[in-house]
Write a structure and sequence with these properties.
3 domains, globular, TonB-dependent receptor, five-stranded mixed sheet, Maltoporin, Chain A, about 1000 residues, about 45% strand
């Protein structure tokens, strides 16, 4: 039997090092007098297991984020909190603007992908979107008591998605009184203001309790132009370089028009500052136009993008507990969350435009095809309104049978999420074609569509002027061609569950405990794009077809805990636990996933733990049933004459010629047009997870806890799609005809005035034999001590990534399981062009020191992100094209060289070419410091002030980052100061 001091120490250490977490009831110890033995230690349920127990240190590593930790962070959203834990990878959030037009916030443990992290609320699944990932901004912050992160696979306990970890968010169910709190903060630049206000009301009685908590949070925007690092497409280069290696857009407010001036044919653009063609006037002069120069005439789109999306969140959480009988309890809870947000991008780039020779604004006097223009008076805005409802009801209790106590519960959960996206700054392609067609000036001096003999008057048709720069577009023009597409998305989940557990029989080392249970779940949803979007009538926007589908799953699981040894020399405790889960899906069939765990304590101070588990991820509704949607991935055409070294090979030249690509063709558009979509034949992903760790709490240093855990995750049969660039290379370089069949080209020049451009690549979902592998080590050190100067706590939590890449850990240049050339270990190598961030830090670490004394508290926290290396060849190309060799030094290693691997054209033989120029840039390591101080007044009001990024640390330059030179994994530049107060009545 444990004494009270041992229980107290066990509880402190468990909470301190994150070895376990409580998901149902707290540990309670009752003692008659100080120093007497414990009469009762209530059993608890730990995350990752259904068996209630008294020992909180288990075979699975868990990080616990307490209410104290949340308050100390100075953050007011669950997404921001999870973004900064050491085990989280790059994921979408409100710092991702381009590529996150729905304003979602996700968590991505181990950099495995957000849909491979399971999110629970009170141990129950939260509704996922159609892609299978959870938008954690739909979980009300006001309801959160603590967050538990299981750093292990758990499919045998929770089913699908629990591949790389589980996030379990616990809501507050014990509160008495009334509490109000307010929070206000902003950046030192005076932007990005955050406000949060919460009211919580709770009451308890001998038979039950009720709780109501309401919250309002508002996030202000930060523009790209408000920070130097994000004010240009590539920091350090001239802002308007659209040539290869630059990133400014070739689609500009001055336009591009293929025509002839003074006998010289080419692509012309309006001169900077020139008036060009004026509204309601015939335009015949070409004096204001010049040949387009890709090094000076591109468009700097960066300043008008958001760095932080603005948004407002309103949430309400209600909870009721009632004791129906002495051993039966009813629990009912409900959650409501509404978030409105907006993403803003530069005005729509309009390409492939055809202008009639008889258009009043056409100064070239001939028909023009493939013109482009950007109407910057109307930026693209994606307004998102996201509403989530959840209702849960459960009965729980216990009963005696055959001298055993059985714990049981039955539950029901319904949750749905609806998203409405309203887009502005878009144009109707049919009306635009009419507005660029023939037109004339009427007797009143107003431009009219059609001809004087056959005017077009429907819908107030107004000729559109793309030859007058940003001032050439009038409100009347925009009113005629403008559209506001409205897209809908809805997903819902219904879940029924039942569990029962007991201690089966006694062994010399303790009781064998078991639990069995079942879940029946239904998930369904749809997307309903605007009819104009479905019809492809929204100019320049990605066409999309509706998605609709769903599936049912019946699951049965069992878990057993077997104590093997106890209270023996070098065997204080040895226990084995095993679990298995059988799942039957309506769409693909059945799967069974077992797990085995061992906990061994040779001495009281040391716990050795190990686990092996098999997991799976069922294909999502989107992966199965998504309609074919347009996308615009960045890719290089192997048939472009500047595609080195491919066109140096005769076989590649032959295949390109056979496809009709003209000699001397140069790719103009750096983005392919591709169609992506679902595949109802994809099968589940399969995973194997291994964990081995130590938890050490030395008796000679009270309240010190150390945990070290190694893990390895292998995921096979991964669901994904070949990239458009891969398909093009497989066709023209490797010579695989099946990939050539997926490619279409435009030989009319209507796409962008450049005959031969790739006009479509079909890229649908499939299973890959290989997948991904992750290996790493997590370390946590926690130490608490009291002095005459107050109570202190030091916590150091670190995640070391050892391997990230293909299954089997092949070397760079080896073939992976799918027959592709492996890139080897990607740890420390920045992923170029990832919209959610491309960070693959080898080490992420958080160190905090907190202090409390009487009414005062203070803390200082350091967050460390290790350095990375990125491909910097684009800068070299840009420097060469600009004739400014000094710009090469923007790369930290401009003269780096490496061995490059490629298939020998026409074969699957890998050819190594050593000592090739491969400029790299180092993203230096970063340390952010945060400080906070608090004081509780005698009248129960707590005041808190803090500064995040105390030393105004800038993020490292990432030249291959998406959209600008700032990766959203890092913090926004600038200090962020905040104040908050909480008063309890």
């Amino acid at each position: 039997m444990l004494n009270s001091n041992q229980v107290s120490k066990a509880v402190r250490l468990a909470l301190a090092i994150g070895a376990v977490s409580v998901t149902s009831v707290s540990t309670v110890a009752h003692a008659q007098d100080e120093g007497t033995t414990v009469e009762k230690v209530e059993r608890i349920e730990v995350t990752g297991s259904r068996i209630k127990r008294t020992d909180m240190e288990t075979a699975q590593p868990i990080l616990l984020v307490t209410a104290e930790d949340i308050a100390r962070s100075g953050l007011v959203s669950v997404g921001d909190i999870l973004k900064e834990i050491a085990t989280n990878g790059a994921s979408l959030g409100l710092q991702t603007n381009n590529g996150n037009t729905n304003g979602v916030v996700r968590v991505d443990l181990r950099n495995c992908g957000a849909n491979r992290t399971l999110v629970l609320v009170n141990g129950q699944r939260w509704v996922a979107n159609l892609g299978g990932s959870v938008d954690i901004s739909t979980i009300p912050m006001a309801a959160i008591k603590q967050i538990e992160v299981l750093k292990d696979g758990a499919s045998s306990i929770y089913g699908t998605d629990a591949i790389c970890g589980v996030v379990n968010i616990l809501t507050d169910d014990e509160f008495e009184g009334v509490q109000v709190s307010a929070y206000n903060g902003e950046y030192s630049e005076g932007d990005g203001k955050r406000e949060s206000y919460t009211v919580t009301i709770g009451t308890t009685s001998s038979k039950g309790s009720t709780l109501l908590s309401a919250n309002y949070t508002k996030q202000g925007e930060v523009m790209g132009g408000d920070r130097e690092i994000s004010s240009v497409p590539i920091f350090g280069l001239p802002a308007r370089v659209s040539a290869s290696g630059g990133r400014a857009s070739p689609t500009t407010p001055n336009g591009q028009f293929r025509g002839t001036k003074d006998g010289v044919a080419g692509s012309y653009t309006l001169k900077d500052g020139a008036a060009g063609c004026l509204p309601n006037q015939d335009c015949t002069s070409l004096a204001d136009f010049k040949l387009y120069d890709a090094n000076t005439d591109g468009y700097n789109f960066a300043p008008v993008n958001y760095l932080i999306q603005p948004g407002e969140t309103r949430s309400l959480y209600v909870l009721g507990n009632y004791e129906l009988l002495d051993n039966v309890k009813l629990r009912v809870d409900g959650l409501y969350n509404n978030r409105s947000s907006a993403a803003q991008l530069a005005a729509q780039p309009l390409g492939g435009l055809a202008i009639s020779a008889d258009n009043v604004y056409n100064p070239f006097g001939t028909d023009i095809v493939g013109a482009s223009f950007r109407p910057i008076v109307a930026p693209r805005v994606y307004g998102a309104d996201n509403t989530t409802w959840r209702f849960g009801a459960s009965l729980m209790g216990d009963f005696e049978l055959a001298s055993r106590t059985f714990d049981w519960d039955v539950g029901y959960v319904y949750s749905d999420n609806s998203l409405t996206q309203l887009k502005t700054g878009f144009f109707n392609s049919t009306r635009m074609a009419t507005a660029l067609g023939p037109s004339f000036i009427d007797a009143a001096g107003v431009a009219r569509c059609g001809t004087a003999a056959a005017p077009i008057t429907t819908n107030n048709c107004t000729p559109f002027n793309i030859f007058g720069g940003e001032n050439g577009v009038t409100p009347e023009m925009l009113a005629y061609v403008g559209v506001e597409p409205r897209n809908l998305e809805f997903s819902k989940m219904t879940n029924y569950s039942a569990n029962i557990g007991t201690e089966l029989f006694e062994l010399p080392a303790g009781a064998v405990a078991a639990v069995v249970g079942t879940e029946i779940r239904r998930e369904s949803g749809f997307t309903n794009p605007d009819p104009l979007t479905v019809a492809g009538q929204v100019l320049g926007d990605n066409a999309a077809t509706p998605t609709e589908g769903g599936f049912d799953v019946k699951e049965y699981y069992a878990e057993v805990l077997i104590p093997l040894l106890s209270d023996m020399p070098m065997a204080e405790m040895l226990e084995l636990s095993a679990s298995t889960r059988y799942s039957e899906y309506s769409n693909f069939g059945t799967t069974n996933n077992p797990s085995f765990k061992v906990s061994y304590r040779p001495i009281k101070e040391l716990l050795v733990r190990a686990s092996y588990g098999e997991g799976f991820r069922a294909p999502s509704i989107q992966e199965l049933y998504q309609g074919q949607n347009d996308s615009r991935p960045a890719a290089t055409d192997p048939c472009s004459s500047n595609s080195v070294p491919y066109l140096q090979n005769a076989d590649v030249r032959s295949r390109c010629a056979a496809a009709g690509v003209p000699a001397g063709f140069v790719q103009k558009d750096p983005q392919f047009r591709a169609k992506v979509g679902g595949n109802p034949d994809v099968q589940p992903e399969e995973a194997k997870t291994k964990v081995f760790g130590l938890v050490y709490s030395p008796h000679f240093v009270e309240n010190l806890g150390i945990s070290v855990d190694w893990y390895n995750i292998e995921l096979d049969n991964a669901i994904g799609a070949r990239s458009a660039g891969y398909i093009a290379n497989a066709c023209y370089v490797t010579g695989i005809q099946s990939y050539c069949d997926l490619i279409s080209r435009d030989f009319t020049g209507t796409l962008n005035g450049n005959s031969g451009e790739i006009s479509n690549v079909l890229s649908l979902n499939q299973n890959f034999v290989g997948g991904l592998e992750r290996e790493g080590v997590d370390i946590n050190v926690d130490y608490r001590f009291n002095t005459e100067f107050g109570a202190f706590r030091v916590n150091w939590d670190s995640a070391i990534m050892l391997y990230e890449g293909d299954v089997g850990q092949p070397n760079n240049g080896d073939l992976n399981a799918d027959g592709d050339i492996s890139s080897g270990n990607q740890v420390g190598i920045y992923a170029a062009g990832a919209s959610g961030g491309g960070a693959r830090n080898k080490l992420k670490s958080n160190l905090s020191l907190s202090w409390s004394m009487d009414a005062w508290t203070a803390s200082i926290t350091a967050q460390y992100l290790s350095s990375m290396t990125e491909d910097c060849r684009g800068i070299i190309t840009a420097a060469t094209g600009l004739g400014q060799p000094e710009l090469r030094n923007l790369c930290s290693h401009p003269d780096a060289r490496r061995t490059l691997y490629a298939f020998k054209p026409g074969t699957t033989e890998v050819v190594a070419t050593p000592d090739q120029a491969y400029a790299t840039n180092e993203l230096s390591s970063v340390v952010y410091f945060d400080v906070q101080m608090g004081w509780t007044a005698p009248w129960d009001t707590q005041f808190t002030v803090g500064i995040r990024n105390l030393f105004d640390k800038e993020p490292p330059l990432a030249f291959s980052a998406f959209a600008n030179t700032y990766d959203p994994t890092y913090r926004l530049p600038g200090r962020f100061g905040y104040v908050s107060l909480t008063h309890k009545f």
